[in-house]
Amino acid sequence: MLIVLAGVFLGCGSGPAGPALDDPDAALRKDALYALGPDGVVAELDAVMAIAASDPEPTVKRLALGLLGPSGDPRVVPLLKTALLTWEDTSTQLTAATALGNVRHVDACPVMIDAFVVWPSERDPVLTALRSSLVASDPLCNEGMRARKRERPDRIGGVLLEISRAR
Asked: Where along the chain do its domains lie?
């Protein structure tokens, strides 16, 4: 009995493995997302996408959205696009804009470029995040940006100039 109690106290032996992605407690769902790590996100991509799409707790939802980007999986792009174009929450839009840049897949380029071209405000932090994501996506999105440069030479040309200066 003493050995079992010592094992539980020290975190060894049988017991709960830790927080679960489907835990009813939002704080534990958040802990479970943090515990995944990059490889865990890839392994649990469908579950993380489900959380990002519909978790009732906004902070958990944003965390899941942010974790989708580094997965590099193009299946996350439509979900991130929806989050980016949902005008209810700037924090969610910022997270989606950054995550799209982290996907580093050609499927994310048109979404970022479209949003960057039509974004309504020059001073909006989401536009700044999109700009950073496009710069970070060099050279992946450069062809798409060049094709759209005539629509917004001030914005697209500025990003391409920033990329060329950084080289």
From this structure: 18-71, 73-167
